[in-house]
Each structure stands twice: as structure tokens, then as C-alpha cells.
Amino acid sequence: MLSSSVVSNSSFTVVNDGNITETYRISCNTTTAGGSPWSPGSVRSDDVFVLRGAFYTVRPSSESFKDDDIIPEGPSDYVVCSTSTVAIDASHTGKKVYRNTKRWLWFSFQPPTTSGTAAQQEITVTISAQEDYP
Amino acid sequence: MVIKQKSVFCVFIFYFLFPFEFGFCLGLSSTMGEVILENLTIGATYSVVQQSGMYLEVLNRGDVPVSLRIDVTKPKNIPEDLKEGYEPIPSTDWVKVEKILFSEIPPGEKAVTDITITIPDDKKHYGKRYQVYLWSRTVPQKGSIVAAGLIHRVLFSIAKKKKGFFGKLFIFLHLKKK
């Protein structure tokens, strides 16, 4: 059994330095060269990991992440940031991010219960901006 | 036809995996946040460049060269994803991006391409309003755990009726008069 969950030690800083308000959409993929037996999911199991993301100003605890913070597999799926999704609370979110505004994105990672490989695996998170509806 | 051009639309991601040792930023911007095409006709193909002179341009505003991929994706059928009055495009096959992959775009340089939309010749689309996304994003390099993306929204409406003989004649005479 692999360890249960870990929160990133540092955050990604996401900046809107354009001139419109935007909302972020987030997805992830395994990008290990030669392919990976792992895939993202909503419940950890054999070769299935769970990746959650949350915007917050300081490092959150692992208990602060919720199921609606789960980052699905792109490009066909993604999570749309709101005041409750990909957020610890409504004070710092990826929704309606005004110009010249910074956001800090943290991750919680739950590895698969068992892994079909002993090799290091690579996972890429894609953070996409979209013009917010007026 | 209306082309709505927004100014600069971008995302910057600062990435510090090992503070004090290494970090970089990825950034993309585009002037095409949203495009609105009105009164398209069934059975016709439209080039956004030919209609408006506007290309889909994505600028690499990061500090490293990036490869870029542009895909056509369907919005989710949820209020957060759909503009009021529009529904997801029935098939992403209707929309073609002239060039999907761009390799090693240096900082400060742009990826530029055209988009075409083909409306099937089917009367069930009369009067419909559809929404589709163009998703441009950096292709992850080896060892990179983050990618930046932009979602360009394309909205279009289909005319309520195909132009008949008299409609076409009217347009012909109108153009001749000019």
C-alpha cells in the first residue's frame, strides 16, 4: 500500500496580467515518456491516483481538500473553477480573476493503492484561462 | 457576421519546484477571447480569416520556448460553461484548425492559424445557436509538471432558412448595383 496523501510544499502562482476578467479550467494527464499504467480518477485504486487542487493563500491541510477539488483527465474533461470547486473557501478562487491579480494553487496527491510500475511517473497539470462571462 | 475581438487574454504560471534552485514561467496570451459568427447557412464552409481577416494568434509570453497544441473541444452542458442561449456544438468535426501543432515557439513569438467551420446541410440546424471551444495549450516538456492553456470561445448562429433563388438573386442584384 502506497502512502495515503500528500500536499505540495510550494504553490504555483497563477497571474492574470491580461486586460479582461477570466476563470480557470484545470485538467491533468500522465505524461511519462513511453506511457504510464497510471491514470487520474476520483477514488484511488490500482494504478489510479487522485489529484486535487485548491487556490488558497497559504498551504492548506490535506483535510481541507474536498471531492469537488478533484482534477480530471484532459483534454475531454476538466474542472471549472468556482467559489467552491478548486478552492478551500470563497476568499481565494480561480473564478472571476480580475486583471493584474495573482492566485496561488496547491495540490493534494493520493497515489494509487498499488502501482504496476516501480519507475518514476510524470503528471502534468494544465491550467487554462477563459474570458469570464460579463 | 460579427467578430468580437477582446484585447489581451492570458494566463501566466510561475513555477518554482525547488525554491532558490530553479524556476520558470509559462505564459500565453491571445487577442481572440471570443468570436461570434451570425447567420451562417447550412451546407456552407466558413473561414474566420476570410470572413473577418482575423487569425487565431497565440503569443508565447513565457521565458522558455514552448510547443503548442490547439484542439477543438465541446463545452460541458452546464451553466458555468455555456453562454446563455447557446448549446454545445453537436460535433467537433464541424470545426477544423488549419494547423494543430506548433514546435518550439520562442518567447515573444506567435503561433498563427485559421479556423474553418462547416455547417452540415441539415434543416434541423435552422435557427440554432452553438458554442464550441478552441483549446490552445503548451505541450509539456520532459520533467515539466505544468502546462498553460487558453480557451477561445466560438459562438455561432445558423440562419433560420437557407437562401432561396430570390434571396440569391436579390444579393446578386444588390452587389451589381454597388
Count of helical stretches of chain A: 0
Q: Name the CATH architecture of chain B.
A: Sandwich
The count of β-strands of chain A is: 8
The whole-number mean of residue pLDDT values of chain B reads 83
How far is it from the N-terminal to the C-terminal residue of chain A, by CA?
A: 48 Å
Major beta sheet summary of chain B? 6 strands, mixed
Detailed description of the structure:
The complex is a heterodimer of chains A (134) and B (178). Chain A is an all-beta fold. Chain A has one domain (6-131). Chain A has no helices and eight strands. Chain A starts with 5 loop residues before the first strand and ends with a strand. Chain B is mostly beta strands and 178 residues long. In chain B, a hairpin with a 3-residue loop joins strand 1 and strand 2 (22-30). The model of chain B is unreliable at 1-7 and 15-22 (pLDDT under 50). The interface between A and B is medium-sized, with 32 and 38 residues. Strand 2 (12-16) of chain A pairs antiparallel with strand 1 of chain B, so a sheet runs across the interface.
Give the secondary structure arrangement, pairings included.
The complex is a heterodimer of chains A (134) and B (178).
Chain A: E1 6-7, E2 12-16, E3 22-30, E4 39-40, E5 48-55, E6 79-80, E7 101-110, E8 123-131
Parallel strand pairs in A: 4-5
Antiparallel strand pairs in A: 1-7, 2-7, 3-6, 3-8, 5-7
Chain B: E1 9-18, E2 22-30, E3 34-40, E4 45-47, H1 48-52, E5 56-60, E6 66-73, E7 87-88, E8 95-97, E9 101-105, E10 110-113, E11 115-118, E12 129-139, E13 146-158, H2 165-177
